Amino acid sequence: MDYKLYYAPGSAAMGVRVILEEIGAPYELIETTIDMDKPRPPEQLALNPNGWVPVLIWDDNAMYECAAITTFLCDRHPQAGLAPGVNVPERGVFLQSLVYFSHSVQNAFQLYFYPDRFADSPDGEPGAQRRGLRRLRETWKVIDDQIGDNEWMLGARFSAADIYLFMLTTWLDTSLGHPSTDEFPNVKRIADAARHRPSIQLVYEEWIAEN
């Protein structure tokens, strides 16, 4: 089955593309932008009025939100082994991790990169950014503690949660005051291991060459 993916480098769509590579399903990338000063294609806005990517299209259907797309693809392609089944105990931690990544870690990034969304006036934006930096450290510490001595997010098995973790670590930029993954050794260990997978090597080739 074929998929289409609204896609922009540096966005969460890269994580979804890694999952599509892991699944082995044919897909087409529809290039768009995450630059807030540039217009989005009207076809993209019709599917996601927020203007964000990723947006996944299949048959006559479409959906957005990275965590939702990740869960959908994993469940639709169980042969890829990227998620525990609904009756497997690790399923709860898998869903918990995806939602926490989406609603807490990504929200901390948004506080920093888009402070105007969280402040009543421009005067309040520096405070929102400072809170975003503190929140990044708080949320990554929660993930680091959750991982503990596990080989991967869910224990001994690699999953889409590890792909999501890797994706989010690529957004950290110490030159902007973000924490380094060195502060979170368990996160760093998994991110370093995940980057060797062929799917991540392909999708993140340029980022890996620069880092």
Mind explaining what this structure looks like?
By secondary structure, the chain is α+β, with helices and mostly antiparallel strands. Helix 1 links the parallel strand 1 and strand 2 (27-31). The protein has helices at 13-23, 42-47, 66-76, 91-113, 125-147, 160-169, 185-194, 198-203, 205-210; strands spanning 3-7, 27-31, 55-58, 61-64. The chain has 2 domains: 3-80, Glutaredoxin, CATH 3.40.30.10; 91-210, Glutathione S-transferase Yfyf (Class Pi), Chain A, domain 2. It has a 4-stranded mixed sheet with strand order 2-1-3-4, with helices on one face. Helix 6 (160-169) packs across helix 7 (185-194). The N and C termini lie far apart (34 Å).
Summarize the structure.
The protein has nine helices and four strands. The chain is of the alpha+beta class and 211 residues long.
Descriptive tags:
211 residues, alpha+beta, Glutaredoxin, Glutathione S-transferase Yfyf (Class Pi), Chain A, domain 2, 2 domains, four-stranded mixed sheet, 4 strands, 9% strand, globular
Topology at a glance:
Layout: E1 3-7, H1 13-23, E2 27-31, H2 42-47, E3 55-58, E4 61-64, H3 66-76, H4 91-113, H5 125-147, H6 160-169, H7 185-194, H8 198-203, H9 205-210
